[in-house]
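Case 368 in the screening queue. Each case pairs one protein sequence with one candidate compound; here the compound is MRU. For every case the pipeline is the same: read the inputs, emit a complex structure as tokens, and attach any notable structural observations.

Predict complex for case 368.
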Amino acid sequence: MNVNGIHYRTIWVKETDRQVIQIIDQRHLPHRFILEDLVSLDDVFTAIKDMHVRGAGLIGATAGYGMYLAALEASRSDSFDTFLAEAAEKLKSARPTAMNLFWAVDKQLEAISSVASADEKISLAFQTAKKIADSDAEYCRRIGEQGVKLIEEISRSKGGKPVNILTHCNAGWLAFVDFGSATAPIYAAHDKDIDVHVWVDETRPRNQGAALTCWELGNHGVPHTLITDNAGGYLMQQGQVDLVIVGSDRTTYTGDVANKVGTYLKALAARDNNIPFYVALPSSTIDWKTEDGVKEIPIEQRDPDEVAFVDGWCEGEVKKVRICPENSPAANYAFDVTPARLVTGLITERGICKPNKDEILKLFPEIT
Ligand code: MRU
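Case 368 output:
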């Protein structure tokens, strides 16, 4: 993705020092574009927990590099293996819902345990982190290739009139290493000169839609309109939504989808209005052990202040204001689970499938 004419991924190794990992600190977007250096396990833990980086794929890629930085630190500790095992647990505790975090840390543990010396472990941890990041970008690119077919078909059936796509939260370039999951088909369609327009849910409380998705789409020149989280149902009733595409933080092998809170309500409205509801995800987001997403996927609860306050750009600086009485309690559920029965299909790097065990396993037969 280009920012001011320069190509960026969301995470990379510093060119002049491979012990430094660089990220875009997403807390400052869209108002300021600020890069941050991560040089230790603690830096990575904080970056994930406090959402300097966020979104399933990017959390996974950052955790992959976190394990590499931990391996560097482990070589200076009393016991390499103990340090690394504790680092893995620490990273896994940073956020509970996104599957990619656990997937990436486990991939690193498996790789690192396959060699004996500290130098080999560090070198393999570096290669594995790079591989995790590269495969995330490549999977998202392929999701774009798969998903664009759906948009092409709708565009044809509308005689080339704009295809209106509603999305929730940010499952975009910023949530992965590049391209995004839900946005990849949209970027692919726009790049093929298919007329698309995106309804962007603001996505309270942290406003990833307003702050991040609008910023991304704007940078890429994709027509879009910011709407309140509650407007989607009305627009669907008015025939102004052709397709919903959202991302996923964790998808069970049975097709239930955990995504940013509010996704479930959009799926219900889409079903009531006969609108296709697709979920785009790389296979690193699939939880191959969990059957019932509603009952089993842990839902992150965050600081209630994220609900009680909003912040925004005012006279050259970010200001934070309270939006409820001082003594009103607030609760901050960060995700919800959309049951498979409300999902039209899953767009993966290997193709589009129905959200059920048999169809998912047909695309990923090596799992059985
Ligand atoms: O809390 P976040 O910002 O890390 O939440 C993740 C998301 O942005 C969304 O849930 C997204 O739709 C899926 S992540 C690819």
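Case 368 observations:
- The radius of gyration is 20 Å.
- Residues 65 and 129 are 5 Å apart (CA to CA).
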